[in-house]
Amino acid sequence: MKDQRRDLPSVNTLLETSGVKWLLDQHPRRIVVDAVRSAVEAARTAGGAQPTDEQWVETIASAVRDATRPSLRRVINATGVVLHTNLGRAPLADAAIRAIGHVAEGYSNLEYDIETGHRGSRYSHCVGLLRQLTDAEDALVVNNCAAALVLTLNALAQKKEVLVSRGELVEIGGSFRIPDIMARSGAKLVEVGTTNRTHDDDYRRAITPKTAAIVKVHRSNFTIEGFTAEVSVDRLAFIAAEHGLPVIYDLGSGLLLPLDDYGLSGEPTASAALASGATLVLMSGDKLLGGPQAGIILGSAAVVAKLRKNPFARAMRVDKLTLSALEATLRLYLEPGRALKEVPILAMLTESVEQLESRARSVVSSLRSSNIDAEVAPSTASVGGGAFPTADIPSRAVVLSKDVERTEERLRRGEPAVIGRIADGKLLLDLRSVLPREDGVLVQAIVKARS
User: Fold this and answer.
1) Residue 259 DSSP symbol
2) Region 348-369 average pLDDT
3) Given phi > 0 = left and psi -120 to 50 = alpha, else beta, which region is 47?
């Protein structure tokens, strides 16, 4: 029997075909050649009948598409988890996106003082806005909140002791644990109290001449209920003042505006955290603040100045794009009503169920006009990102009940990818975490996935 693999075309032969030549005109030769080699090898391994010319071109084109597709790309978050860490947390406001483009297209005054004509400091950007919005004496921006904690402890407590309640030794995303992060700063962690109950005297008894600071970590991604007790920041500030110690409050979430009127309560704002007496407040930029990834340090001018001089500050500094996006986002907060509308994370969290119902019905209507069976159903969304961990937010979802597994996979692998969730044998696409401008794109993606 003749071995059909002998009849497979060579790489050079395929490169001369019209379909592959077109690919060579559109993409780097190296990528196309690798795709052709992969296609030939796959055909040799599979055996059987030789592919047609059309099949060769489609196989090679598919490999080229995979090779040229960006690793980091846009997705539509239809999970109902608004601050989804795996999906990039907070989407940026239009103002922040424009600011990034404006700064990125040329040079900037990142470290240049235009007024004096001398060298400036990147640490001066955003400080005025942060002071104005939070009543902090000073502020420092680094690359994330974990970095802010390491920098703070290294500057204030290297080779010294730091007190923290056992009930606050939390694990954050990616299996990173607060005690491990603190240890990397060079400070010695001293646990006080128990998992469920910590009292004033637990801190007082643990203070020694080696104690450099008291740390409070906001338990933003879980709650402890029942027989519990913890020491408030204002009480810690009183205890610390007795011994001349700073209180470092790892707030995490970065909330600047209270959301109690929208059913979201229990998360302190940055200004409230400072007013409670904390020496420093540390928070994220890409959570409830709704900006880019950043670690924001607020508080005492004297202490922030010490952090600014620490060598770790340079290792953890942010770039011009982050600063431009953060500044543009913060400016929106000067008008709270505008922030609630234009900061996407706030707009999604505060959107009414009636608005979501209307959007969902419009999506379903468009799908049905394309002969796709879909329906609107109540859903429960969550904040995510380690904020308001017990909050269940009423929402609405577009529900697909047929060919669920295949549809979910095709949506997930599409362009843009759509990430939903399967529950009770149905695919739910929760609109609480979908930007309104994405509704039309969502319809197109579903139609394509079901074709």
Assistant:
1) -
2) 97
3) left
